[in-house]
TrEMBL record:
Mg(2+) binds at D74, D93. This is Thiamine-phosphate synthase. It comes from Lysinibacillus agricola. Its cofactor is Mg(2+). It comes from the Bacteria. 2-[(2R,5Z)-2-carboxy-4-methylthiazol-5(2H)-ylidene]ethyl phosphate binds at T137, T138, S139, G169, I189, S190. Pfam families: TMP-TENI (PF02581). Its EC number is 2.5.1.3. Condenses 4-methyl-5-(beta-hydroxyethyl)thiazole monophosphate (THZ-P) and 2-methyl-4-amino-5-hydroxymethyl pyrimidine pyrophosphate (HMP-PP) to form thiamine monophosphate (TMP). Residues 8-192 form the Thiamine phosphate synthase/TenI domain.
Length: 212
């Protein structure tokens, strides 16, 4: 995985999209230049069973067309079955060591909120860490209180080369603060799912990480 892949990491499931077709939102986001995608079909009224797997495959196929890594949230079995590029897990999911064993050298992303969690993630070869929620978010019911950028800044100083993505309540107006704090990129749900102009939103975010 390249650190640049984290620049604009789009996360989506059917529950995040109102009044549009989720697959159309993903296609527009891919056309506009997202650099990584996470399939996160989670929450009330989301797909299950064969419909869940079919939707994951549809998203994966589109990501392949645009050469964008396809990452599966939480569901290690699905990731392995589909031959996804990677998996993202948090502290409530399977232990990092066990996931690493199951996925071999696929990309492993781990959410961390403390030094202890960070050290465990690194010990088992996390390829990147997700730090958040930086700001308050309405997209994750069980999110922790907003943390701001202090922990992110600390981790960046401690590990200058570690791929870090910031998440939680990030939008076009506040994204510059996580960029300044040292994130390699941002992970967003609502900023893209609820955008009236996905192409413009994607360009605005990407310019923060590519313009000096
Ligand atoms: C890139 C990224 N960072 C953090 C998370 C959150 O993971 P987790 O804490 O496991 O919460 P859920 O997303 O599973 O509800 C993430 N998904 N992606
Ligand atoms: C999936 C997720 N994980 C978080 C964390 O803090 O670990 S915050 C979050 C939701 C991000 O959605 P939005 O961009 O709409 O705020
Ligand atoms: Mg999780």
């Amino acid at each position: 995985m390249k650190r640049n892949d984290l620049q604009l990491y789009f996360i989506m499931g059917t529950g995040n999209v109102l009044n549009k077709k989720p697959i159309t939102v993903l296609e527009k986001a891919l056309q506009s230049g997202i650099t990584m995608f996470q399939f996160r079909e989670k929450g009330p009224n989301t797909l299950t069973g064969q419909a869940y797997e079919n939707f994951a495959r549809e998203c994966q196929k589109l990501c392949q067309q645009y050469n964008v890594p396809f990452i599966v949230n939480d569901d290690v079995e699905l990731a392995v079955k589909l031959g996804a590029e990677g998996v993202h897990i948090g502290q409530e999911d399977l232990p990092v060591s066990m996931v690493r064993e199951k996925i071999g050298n696929m990309i492993l992303g781990v959410s961390v909120h403390s030094q202890t969690e960070l050290q465990t993630a690194l010990q088992y070869g996390a390829d990147y860490v997700g730090i958040g929620p930086i700001f308050s978010t309405t997209s994750k019911n069980d999110a922790k209180p907003p943390s701001g950028t202090e922990f992110l800044q600390q981790v960046r100083i401690q590990y200058p080369e570690l791929p870090i993505v910031a998440i939680g309540g990030i939008n076009c107006l506040n994204a510059h603060t996580v960029c300044k704090a040292g994130a390699d990129g941002i992970a967003v749900i609502s900023a893209i799912c609820e955008s009236e102009d996905i192409s413009n939103t994607v360009s605005t975010f990407k310019s923060l990480f590519t313009d000096s």
